[in-house]
Records
---
Amino acid sequence: MPWPQTRRIIGTKVQRLDGPDKATGRAKYSFDINRPGMLHARMLRCPHAHARVKSIDVSQAEKAPGVRAVHTIVKPDAELYWAGAEIAAVAADTEEHAEDALRAIRVDYQELPHLVKESEALTAKRRTVSGNAMTNVEAAGDFATANFDQQAYQGAAATVEGTYGVPIISHQCLESHGLVAEWNQDATELTVWASTQAVPNTANQLAQYFKLPATRVKCITHYMGGGFGSKFGPDIQGTVAAELARKARAPVKLMLDRAEEVTCGGQRPSAFGTVKVAGDNQGRLQAFEVDCYGSPGIGGAATVNFNLLPYVYSAPNVKRKHSRLRMNVQTARAMRAPGHPQNCLLTEQALDDLAARLNVNPLDMRLRNLPANDPNAVDNAPTSFLALRNTIYTREIDIIKKMCNWEQRWHAPGKGGGVVKTGLGVALHTWGGGGRGPNPTKVTISADGSVLAQSSSQDLGTAQRTVTAIIVAEVLGLQPRDITVQLGDSVHGPSTPSGGSTTCPGTSPAILKAAEAARSAFLAEIAPRLNAQAGDLTIEPGVIVNRTNNQRTPWRQACARLGMNPVQATGDWPPPGQLNAMTPAGAALRREWQQTLTNQGVGGIQVAEVKVDTETGVVRCTHVWAVQDCGMIINKQGCESQVAGGVIMGVNYALFEECIYDRATGRMVNPDMEFYKLGGIQDMPQIHVHMMDMPERGVIGIGEPPTISTAAAIANAIHNALGVRVPQAPYTPEHVLAALANRR
Amino acid sequence: MKNFTYFRPTSPEQAVGLLEARWGNTELLAGGTDLLDLQKEYIAQPSRIVSLAGVAQLNNVSIGDRAITLGAGMTIAAVAAHASVRQHAAALAQAAAEVGAPQIRNMGTLGGNLCQRNRCWYFRDEHTNCLLKGGPRCNALDGENKYHAVFTAGHRCVIVHPSTLAPALIALGASADVQAPNGRRTVELAKFFRAPTGPAEREHTLAANELVLSVTIPIAGTRSASYEVRHKQAYDWPLVQAAVAFQGGQNGAKATGVRIVLGHVAPTPYIAEAAQRALDNRAITEASATAAGRAAAEGAKPLSQNGYKLRLIEVAVKRALLLASGAKPYWEV
């Protein structure tokens, strides 16, 4: 089952079908759901960064005006490790009453020592997080290539060492985490309207928590306002809202407020590293040595995957030492290409510093250090990224060089004139983006000519309704707007979570299969009524054609022949069970799935232009050029929007974002949108996107990759403008002025 | 959020009559962009709210030969757009146009901007008992203070005053008409602000039962400008603001009556007297403006994380002076 050879709609620019609904407010997000008799819930959180709960008394809260239910989350003697840990929750008739009631809960805390600054946690002689270690620092694995110490730096034309860092940032979902929970009369069935990027998962986790059959819990997510990896399940607020709803016998809405969203909704771990690189006089890397650490907060497992270092490029001699630095702040959650932007920053800045020392043009530097195409993959999986990576990056560097007019714009570091200095910087990235299953999709064709496509998959930002409509319309000879798409309801069966840039590659073959099955069933159904054999009928845009006599029946007239019975077909790909079979048929399916219909592994490159006011240290990013490898495109407009969105996120990462924690109280001081800075439209560059499509590779997800290299490209552009490295992100006026002062 | 009784008087006298003489129990509501946040965050918990929406007099504007009088209820957007303000009080128009975002400018008022509370993140955190809320000491002194005051001598609380209209108005020599319980009085804006030291004080000198009626700006052939160094261009507070005003000063002529007022560097708008003296009766040139900028930073005692603001003071003063003198902004490319 290949993709259609000639594609009428797939790969073109189609406007988001639900754009007007989102822009006008007709689209209802979880936050907008209001059920009859609904209560509002709020959670009480530990105000201390580390404390033991001595006692909790909710009796006054239970009597507070408007309160209908109180749920205690922790027990006395619980040790809590961050300011934000959940204590109890209240449901009341209004949000204000719920807030007031929280303040009537009496909690006695024994405050314990905390550490919320990397610089302190690194050297402190005590442990302030869970576990048995002596300190908060945990070795996370060292690595060295053979004989590193003997040979790594021998005969190098230049060696440079630099220290670079990037702080913890927050997901800052525009729609905060949360949901509305509603039980049926006898509390045997639960429905939630949740802001989630994993609809069936959320329902299943709630079913497990409440020990209900999975069929008795329904999750609805028609629209969601951003997750970025932080919304894979009901979360604690999900179970708490459902507990309160059951206790109060009324629907309950529990959405985090902005401060909670920032302090509790997820974070991207910090990363700091001292990187030493050596190369020959052409800029070919000879050695890459890094000593780094980062903080996943109180979390133990999730951290920056420093095993990716050196990022993208290959070096013969590599040595890595890295530590996980646990602190009394919220735990890390996956965030749009977890680990990659940090690794990209650590690698690309070091590479540029070496290029500057060697007087090598940064683009040449990149070309000379690209990993080779893997010969084994070239033979066995010719459309795979491993087989093509050198080819892809080389082509991208060539494209972007022309796009941004690199030869004219670029100057040697610090060589531009004026008070406001212009600089150009480049960085590369990579990501997976392969598809998974199951994602069964149902397509229904009705007698009035309408077509309905249904799946439980959610729209995290993929413009998934539009993706679905494009594929169905392509197969049925219609236009995307002719297709009604229903998404985000667990009644439609299983679907895979939207994580890892997998939604489009994971669902699109299933949608294709469903649409083709619906077409076959439809033609078989109407053939006798058109006095034709099903095999003689074909679909052209808007018409059913009988190839034997060229009889042409418009779509609606053909559908009208269906009478009372709509045609329904369900498709899924890969076929459950068959894919993993260790048989020749299984192997063929895997090849088709992984190398033709979809694929994984992409490379991308971005160039940023900045203007740095050397008197004030203010950096403005004026242009970003992005070339993104993307396999086969379903919706070019959606793809380009994804890239632009990724760039915007990367600009914020480079210039503005930082979770700031107070040493003394252990509390975050900027859990808002006032001092947690996010750029507005005036702060954004002109974004120039080039999708380097390779349809022969199949569909690949690109939600994450375009955010990876933006910050590193900006860091390098600032270095290029000033001739001095600003080592610490975000690149604020204070950091820029400090770097300039150090040079003087 | 504490329940409150809402009053909607129609005259300044009525409004003031509804206020208590002590801070805490009663609050005036103008645009609401500050007060409602404070209430929702449990920082302000008044039991009485006196809305100014019905006090029509606060929207009066009069343009005379010698002065402009702007009603305190005028929105910040209206101030920014007013032709006479732009003509005679450029610094005010520029500062107003840069406040917050359109939503804030369309709701926030001139009087509210002058009387708003500070933005210190310790003050605004319900769970931090800072000096202004009755705590033992200011958390910013050895805490997170990159946005805090650099002129700290003699101050136990190191907030910065948030108003960006105030430095412009002080530079322009403006004064406020105030309704007090026993009549009206006029206060120079240069004497309107003070550094609070505890819960019983605000960032200004008005009593809890007083109300700003209007602001009067003299028309005196003044050239003026406001320049903000901002991290973000969209929706952000300045890191440092300089507002300047003087007579003469264009085309190499000498500037007289020089006023240089800084914002976001001290608990009150900060009048940079040394810089004023350095420039008075001198032509505005790159060199003299640079020297004035250096003088403006004299006497600063920055905290652990905000030393960078000294450099920004120098640059902001220089650029504001050059802008007011009509020079081409060399920093715009």
Note: The interface with chain A takes residues 1-2, 42, 101, 119, 121-122, 125, 127-128, 139, 142-144, 146-147, 229-237, 239, 305-306, 308, 311-312, 315, 330-333 of chain B (CB under 8 Å).
---
Amino acid sequence: MTLRRDAMSIRILGAFGVALALHAIGTALIPGYSAPFAIRAMLVIAALLAVASVGQTLVVILGGIDLSIPFVIGFANVVAAQLYGQGWHFALVCVVVFGLAGLIGALNGALSRGLNIHPLIVTLGVGMIVQGLVLIWTKGFPSGSAPKAVSAFVSIGGHFGPLPVPALIPALVVLTLLILLVLERTPYGRQLYALGANPGAAPYALIRPLRIWTVTFAISALFAALAGVLLLGFTGSAYGDVGQPYLFQTIAAVVVGGAALVGGRGSFVGTLAGVLVLTEINTLLIGLNFAPASVQAAFGAIILLLVSLYGRERHFRTTV
Amino acid sequence: MTRILGRNGFALAILAVLLAANLMMNPARFHPAAWGTLLGMAAPLIGAALASTPVILAGRGGIDISVGPVMGLVGAVVIKLLFLGAGISSPFLLWPAALAIGAAIGAFNGFMAVVVRVQPIVATLGTYLILGGVTLTILPAPVGPAPDWLKAMAGGWSFLPLGLIALSWCALTRLPFHGQLMAVGSDDRAAYTAGVNVSLVRFLAYVLTGLLAGAAGMMLTALIGSADPKVGANYTLIAIAAVALGGVSLAGGRGGLLGAAIGAIDIFLLQSLLTTLNVSTYVLQVAYGAILVTAVVLIALQDRHAERSPA
């Protein structure tokens, strides 16, 4: 166990090292790369991706995958704007959005585990239904906006007390500590790792797989909905496809952060490292004036390179 | 035989219902004289679903999300570089070129997934992004037209590529490779201890997926009659949905190309029916999702029932 933990820490440190190295390259090549405003912008963009990746991290530790994240982000983004625009109190809007998101996630987890269907298919199907229903409801033209408080919470130019960053950043630090606490020190967290590491043995330790899957997928959808509402504050107006870039980015962040998609391994600190790496790569490539098409290609190549360097799986032969 | 029918049962039932509904609502479109065109319209999705199947059958998280972008790249290279650029118009050069592109990318994916041992969804995600970027660089905007013989493959000759794939797959199922693929997919450790070269079988599954994706790219190019850098990638997820609908287990080792094709035809017929009924694309989206979830739930319930009462 200690040996695996050490290997895990090395992966995470490696990912942070790569992020730092990328930042150094950016600073050397691009004027203004380390300017306060640029760093603040990167932090906010990274923090939004980090919030969207919380759920993917938990689900991957469990040995699952959640493709409904972009659809739930879009759902929360559009529904929150629409209801708030109709004059609802924002607290009530949040109750409705997060309540529905939790139900969507719970359905994902319960169907996948209860009927033993691959979560990739369940979350994809449920996600498509959710997106379609939102489109039908808004007739494809969402309206409305975010309350000022949400916009200020994520604004790149915002301040939090004496800190020159919006409140989102300290909030993410607190969230990270909370997640660490839950994963390392609570029965839920330990059961999550145990079930992910050995789904066959976990029930003998009185872990109830169906319950853990339902709860975890519900949490995943809740954080996706949170990301959707924060993105509404960030961009100012509702957009149903706002979550689409997050489909593969959350998976990439989790994997670059050292988690194994087969389950039982991963940590949110690792995911944060992965998020920083992805944000640095993106900013660097755009800063170097690559065309969007080349940015995308280079992004793919770098993900492959990084994962080949330190995200390799054991040979299945060692599991015989 | 009943077992095969059983796994495809729901997809077949949906097929029968949708076909009947389509025939009633839109007899002209489903008139025998229009079957070629009809198959041509369904062909890219069928091709993409067929392509997605071999790696999924190989198990252990095997999946190839780069199938859609391969289709886009094939169109870009074949039309922009080879046909319009180099003036090559012979089907006997363009088809092998398309298949070679697909096979090469499949081999790269296989190398990443089997030799470097990157998790397949991440390895093929990398390829997905690279191919999308390369395609847009080669072909910033749609160009055309496609050669006439290729456009005919979306009309009267549309049965030819799909028929050849069907024949090749039938031949392949007679070879030891097919048994080994299913064995590796259902229990790779048992297959390994029985002396199967698990890594080689998995690698070949990726190459096969690439080859089929290349063919699907040609069918897509035939249908739209030109090359478009943006359409290909859309096929990835819907093709995987078709595969699951057709009773192929995402855990590997169960199902086959026939099921995947039926799943794809189901989705096509649903699309066709809802378009005839003038339903908005939003409803179509909900219907896709609902059919997919219902079908996998029913298949799962049936599997559970079968386990409880072994015949």
Note: Chain A has a mean pLDDT of 90.
---
Amino acid sequence: MELLEGIATLKKYGINVVPTLLTRDLGEAKKIGTKLGFPLAIKIISPDILHKSDRGCVKLNISNVEELGKAWKGIMANAKGARIEGMLIQKMASKGIELIVGGKVDEQFGPLVLFGLGGIYVEILKDFSMRVCPISKEDALEMISEIKGLPILQGARGTKPVDLNAVADLLVKVSRLLSESKIKELDLNPVIAYEKGYVVVDVRMIE
Amino acid sequence: MINLKQIFEPKSIAVIGASREPSKVGHAIVKNFVAGGFPGDIYPINPNATEILGLKCYKNVSSIKGKIDCAIIAIPAQFVPGALEECGKKGVRGIVLITGGFSEVGNVEGERQVAEIAKRYDLSIIGANCLGVLNPAARVDGIFLPVYKMARPRVGDIGFISQSGAVGGCIVDLAAYAGIGISKFVSYGNATVIDETHLLEYLGKDEKTRIIVMYLEGVRRGKEFIKVAKEIAKKKPIILLKAGVSKKGAEAVKSHTASLAGSAEAYRAVMKQCKIIEAKTLMELFYFAKIFDQPLPKGNRVGIVTNGGGYGVLATDAVELFELELANFSEESKKILRKNLPNYVNIRNPLDVVGDADSARYDLAINTLMEDPNVDIIVVVVLFQTVAIDSRVISVITRAADQKKKPIVVISTGGEYTEVHKRIFDSYGIPTYHSPTAALDAVQKFVWYADFLKKNKRIG
């Protein structure tokens, strides 16, 4: 599924996604950028370019209009010859705790929702919890409290605790989305959680 | 409509494939019903015999005049459809199909045929390819394993569902040996008609069953299973061992989530969600199941009584390992203990009543903790190797347990002398363990479940 389509689906369920727009025009991009506010990230959307970073078609931490123009031109040059659908302009999410929220359809039990700490925690330590959809808010809170990395969310080593209530709401919404749609696999990775609220930065949906 | 009562509590049974030959399955079944003292009618069916074990033998079910609640079928697979048709026409609705040779060996067509006949006549079939059912209270013994090889457990309140016959047989045998009682046992094999969810639902409603133990290799109706399990877990504990957790490597997954969430993880998620207690080994099934006979703990504070200092330390470690709390004895308890125990006994938890403790010392210690408001669970370590301790400690502990005030578990490690005493405790319904970790793991599951019940009551 297209990224923008994925984002639209998430929004339909009231899930917070980092502001993201698509444009083909640098002038418009600059206007969008000013409206969203810097820093921004831009990424090319092209059916010919699957690994955007490898081709130098992603630029992060753009902090003003000038840099945006430069980044745009650089990416376009790197993408020469490819069919280009447009450029994705995305507000950079501020720093917080990285989470992963996912979904998968199990052949026996139907859709499952997954929760874990992002990055190495889920990848290497396999620290995640899961439930069968649909889940209640209590289930969601239980999922959060089940992971070994819970103290990180509760504010370990002087950091502020993250908004577990908002994260639990997110899990409930994702579970509803999975129960009501034909999505077979879903990754919201990363989701950045803050002291107040969260934001989904990237989404991958497979129907 | 599925009707399991006629299978678990039949008034009359027919054994299709009854045999005069002692080495045959069809012989063992008739024999077990007769020897087990089944009070209802037993109809052996064998066209070539006139009498089996003193019972009149019939050519087929249609030649029997009386009503038959349940037919146990142990004839070769190719004759099964015919026998089922006959049962259907005669009005026999409960079937235990012992016979194998269906889908488990690739005979999918045969299995489909069985299902089709069942549907046509509204037959409730357990099997195919199963070990059968056991209901000690009703003296129903439809298991084809000879009693001298597989002992039968006493009447108790654990209901046991096993997909596998082999695993089921071992567990029943072990339960009998350990003195653990069961309410019902069933091995359901291929689940051609009746599956794990039907059986779970039945035991959920069964008043004689207070604890449900399951050994599963898979679940057929996942959503339904979750619904049923969730409801039952609010009333009685379900302890589940899910076998076959190997990863499906061939499955092509694209997302990060799907690569993490295999079938084993899905089952684990289901167990957590339904408040099913997960056992990871066969022994854990026992360890966890038997503690649930005790009164529910009000909290997680453990009081330990021991006649060996080292075991006090080990038990304390296990309390911490399983995230329980070591109780602080009340001032009142300390006063009583100090006054009545020898002056070389340290008055603290774990309470080491010392190697020269006799049963009277245990009596005082256990009864004091029984009255102590700061103690929720009593763990009694009895090391039978010492000079002063003997069988009298059994009556001390059983009397304390009879008060049904707080859960008591016993830890005892040793050889034959110890084993004999452990079996007596277990058969009295006092959960007994060979090690502190095994005991406190079970205590932790019990405390967790009691806590869930409490919370659930508050919400509901």
Note: Chain A touches chain B through 29 residues (CB under 8 Å).
---
Amino acid sequence: MIQKSIKYLADSQYSPAQLFFGFSFWLILIPPVSAFFGMHYHGWSLGIGDPILLSLTESIAIAIFYFLALIAGFFITALTIKWMSTVYAPKATLKDAFAVVTVVTTPIMLGGIAHLYPSILFHVIVLSPIFALSGYLIFASIPVLLKTDYDRGIFMGCSLFGFISTAGISLLGISAIAWVHGIGPNLGV
Amino acid sequence: MNKDIYYTDSATVFLIFCTMIWAIIGMSAGAYLASELVMPWLNFDIAEITFGRLRPFHTNAVIFGFGGSALIATAFYSVQRTCHVRLFSPKLAWVVAIGWQIGVAVGVASLLMGYTSTKEYAEFEWPVDVAVAIVWVSFGIVFFGTLATRKIRPIYVSNWFYGALIIVIAMLHIVNNLAIPYSWTQAYPVYEGAQDAIVQWWYGHNAVGFFLTAGFLGMFYYTLPKQAGRPVWSYRLSVIAFWAFVYTYIWVGPHHLHYTSIPDWLMTVALVMSIILILPSWATMLNAVMTMSGAWDKLRTDPGMKFVVVSMIFYALSTFEGPMLAIKSVNVISHYTDWTVGHVHSGALGWNAFVTFGTIYFLVPKLVGATGLYSKRLANIHFWLALMGVLVYIVALWASGVAQGIMNLAIDDYGQLSYSFVDIMLTTIPYHWMRLAGGLMFLSGALLMTYNLYRTYAMSKHNLPVLVKIPKVHPGNEI
């Protein structure tokens, strides 16, 4: 089914703007909106003790920054794919790069609904298989959507996997910097 | 028979055998330690297997036993091929190979018995330190002696990295372990207080930099072009990255001592140099990616290549995460938590172990005269077990580390700490179960590999070592 859907997307006529505003933009809203409700009404559960509830202002600020980071991440990843394709998939266009990002991020954005219950352990359990699925989609979608052969696609998938992992880590680092500077939990630093 | 026309690989074969033995010993100890974190009764009140003693046993067994044996083995193998000459002194090479095993074995056994200098990654007491220093200098004599007697004019880039490994580790090991003995098992360090800490982490992080990075980059620069069947994409970039790496890395140690009593400027220098270090690291990564480009079918056909390619991903990830953790605002959260442990393992397992596995899968059939591995399928299963293992491991410790970091620092409205130490420990239990599962997956992959290599050796039916003739050097490159 996954392969069929990717093939269907590859054969469809659309522009990058249509793909983004007609589909991805709305999906990208799911994690920050869920995060807002989770942080403000339930609070982050670390595993023990009362959940850390954030104020309305803080929750809105974090949700907005989160949304902007996801939007930026979407475009930067698409441009990176286009840049990488000069080596791995010479026939790929920007439209194809947008399609790959859309396919890969769809499960993650849908999984963002997990933010409604912000518990670290719950997130690890729910999001790990979702990230594994997205990892699979990187390798499954690149050869079809970027019109390259399977072997080159696997190589490009490895490079893209490295890029996305690094971006994920940097998001964790940015979060830590935000916490230390007073956005988020009340820390004694 | 004129032996001088053949390479000498017997010490390499022995060292690769030892590498796999140390992998099993060191990784089993790691898995046992992970078990003790969730089932503390597993120490059975036996002092030798309590966490405090088994932990340095694990780190020294995997770094110096597994990693060190692999580095010396591949250095001996590749320096001959890249210099077109037999090892400078095969007998001294054997002394190094056996001496290293004895040194590490005595060292880790003494740690279990409770003899420790308490300096992380430099826990061995002074008699073992002296023995290790002698063996290491002998390694240098064999390596640089071979370089000096080479038949080919250029010095290939892998030898630059191995050379840096040998020189800098000798310097770090000797300077950091300077001490005044007062018995056969104990000594006073010559440094005091904050100075001792600075020297220790100058050693500690450069052990990561020059042992676990420069040495393995030497291995990588030899193996990857050979496996891919293509030259290094940019030789110039590799040499520029080498010098940038050497000049930068030596400064970064004090980032382990943020918010301590060492001078503030030293922390800042370490932070800045750590960030700069991303450039040479990623230049190497780019060079690797471009070198692999074109060898498109290798990922499907060569199991060893899979390990080497994935090792590059983890190299990129670790060399980005490391500088990020050196930023003070991140470090205040991450330090003293599982986040650091996860970072170390993404480098040690994902980068060091993967590139070693890939290299050994590449070398062993050649060394034992086999046409290929006994089972590519087993190697593929090993790959997926190892990959899943390391991913489960680091995801668990990222989550655990973030929770610990916040809980360590969280305060209530009265400025009191919100969580006790016991609260934090209880929170981490589920993640430590995941960590154990990831570690067991990684260990079972290493066991499969050992079996596969043994069967490869068994089916080759050759007397070891297999003799390989030294090829003639192109006249334009002759010395």
Note: Residues 421-460 of chain B form the longest helix (40 residues).
